[in-house]
């Protein structure tokens, strides 16, 4: 105990003196995509920063500098990139639909953000629609909000109305996570109402109201199951929740059975069967697979097959985080990755791709180790390990300082 305390006291002043110096950091290293409405414009703070304050610069992914374009694009003194609202005739793909990155530089070195996809979305006319439906008393009815494919990515259902009154999901009314309206145990009086969806544009904030659709309700008649809603494929991040819809009409009411990769569903509290579909919470990579939903009544059956892909986001850890050592030392940087495999690693020093030479080598099965032998003062700087897999990118960096030795034996390495 005494010894530990002594060592801590002894080592603290030294570590302190070094750490008070300069540092670089990321304000937001998950920022990789910015979509904005052309009528609103966008303000993007540089995701990288430094202390004491760093010089922040924006570039295009091609390496080209960003220049100010009056009333179109401006980089503020605080490193914030601003793209102003613009009319369709002023659209310039180099400015409004391109990959950018930002760098932060101070005496510790220079780091760069991952590429950030910046994309403008135009205001375009569109309407949303709901089709009339038929159902049997006691059965289920499904209304879908039909959004044109050109804007599907940005427009989502925010609510449903029954006779212009917002529907609160309860009793027989359900709103699925994909914006569908389900009515269970359909009653004759459901035919007296009109049903509309209300949507909102994610970037312009505009809302739209659909036409009013009607439901015609008939008396139950024996019939085989017919699918009303299902899914083909879903890609979701680990840890999130997914709802896989599967619902059918038919009389008697069909029973629903789920099969994953040829087996019944695992008995796990993360899996819940609801009228709106199969809900899986806290998703894990092993939940990926082929799902079959089978609906059966006494007159027959129907089934749909869909695939679920759970992606584990890439995470990168570079060690050591910070290293101050004598000139002539051997420096080893290890880039550890977690998440889905099949990535490509790239190394940067002060935002330039590391070139292998007499001093520097890149080793390991996937280039995960950077080795500097007999390191020179010029090898000081910020080293970054970037890992890319499909559209995912993750990075971590390390500040290396090489200084003249005072008491050490030439050629030996120090921690
Ligand atoms: C970081 O960026 C992500 C992706 O754009 C965003 O969702 C998140 O709110 C940002 N976080 C901060 C602290 O700005
Ligand atoms: C940077 O400056 C601009 C313009 O003055 C301002 O709108 C923005 O909020 C500032 N951003 C930060 C991160 O301070
Ligand atoms: C390692 O890096 C070299 C170039 O530096 C590249 O040619 C090679 O494909 C990389 N290997 C892997 C597994 O990424």
From TrEMBL:
Signal peptide (from-to): 1-17
SMART domains (alphabetical): IG, IGc2, IGv
Domain Ig-like: 114-216, 225-309, 313-401
Entry-linked Pfam families: I-set (PF07679)
GO cellular component: axon; plasma membrane
Keywords of the record: Disulfide bond, Repeat, Signal
Gene3D superfamilies: Immunoglobulins
Single annotated GO MF: cell-cell adhesion mediator activity
Keyword Repeat: yes
One GO biological process term: brain development
Family annotation (PANTHER family): DS CELL ADHESION MOLECULE LIKE 1, PROTEIN SIDEKICK
Name by which UniProt lists this protein: Down syndrome cell adhesion molecule-like protein 1 isoform X2
Source organism (scientific name): Pipra filicauda
């Amino acid at each position: 105990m005494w010894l530990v305390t002594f060592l801590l006291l002894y080592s603290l002043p030294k570590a302190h003196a070094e750490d008070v110096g300069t540092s670089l950091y990321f304000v937001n290293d998950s920022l990789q995509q910015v979509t904005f409405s052309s009528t609103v414009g966008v303000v993007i703070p540089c995701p990288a920063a430094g202390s004491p304050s760093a010089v922040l610069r924006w570039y295009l992914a091609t390496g080209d500098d960003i220049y100010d374009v009056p009333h179109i694009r401006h980089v503020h003194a605080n490193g914030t990139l601003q793209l102003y609202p613009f009319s369709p005739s002023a659209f310039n793909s180099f400015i409004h639909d391109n990959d950018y990155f930002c760098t932060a530089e101070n005496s510790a070195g220079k780091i760069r953000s991952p590429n950030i996809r910046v994309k403008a979305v135009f205001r375009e006319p569109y309407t949303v629609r709901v089709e009339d439906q038929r159902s049997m008393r006691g059965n289920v009815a499904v209304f879908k909000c039909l959004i044109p494919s050109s804007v599907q990515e940005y427009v989502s259902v925010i609510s449903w109305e029954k006779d212009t009154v917002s529907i609160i999901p309860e009793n027989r009314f359900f709103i699925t996570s994909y914006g569908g309206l389900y009515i269970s145990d359909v009653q004759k009086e459901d035919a007296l109402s009109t049903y509309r969806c209300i949507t909102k544009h994610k970037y312009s904030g505009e809302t739209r109201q659909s036409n009013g659709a009607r439901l015609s309700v008939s008396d139950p008649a024996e019939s085989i199951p017919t699918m009303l809603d299902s899914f083909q494929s879903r890609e979701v991040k680990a840890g999130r929740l997914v709802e896989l819809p599967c619902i059918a009409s038919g009389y008697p009411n069909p029973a629903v059975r789920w099969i994953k990769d040829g087996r019944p569903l695992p008995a796990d509290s993360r899996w819940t069967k609801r009228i709106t579909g199969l809900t899986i919470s806290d998703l894990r990579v092993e939940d990926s697979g082929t799902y079959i939903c089978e609906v059966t009544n006494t007159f027959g059956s129907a089934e749909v097959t869909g695939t679920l892909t759970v992606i584990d986001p890439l995470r990168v850890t570079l060690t050591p985080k910070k290293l101050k050592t004598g000139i002539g030392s051997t420096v080893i940087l290890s880039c550890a990755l977690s998440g889905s495999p099949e990535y490509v690693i790239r190394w940067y020093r002060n935002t330039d791709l590391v070139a292998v030479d007499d001093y520097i080598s890149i080793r390991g099965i996937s280039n995960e180790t950077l080795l500097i032998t007999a390191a020179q003062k010029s090898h000081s700087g910020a080293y970054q390990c970037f890992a890319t897999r499909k559209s995912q990118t993750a990075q971590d960096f390390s500040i290396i300082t090489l200084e003249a030795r005072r008491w050490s034996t030439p050629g030996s390495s120090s921690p």
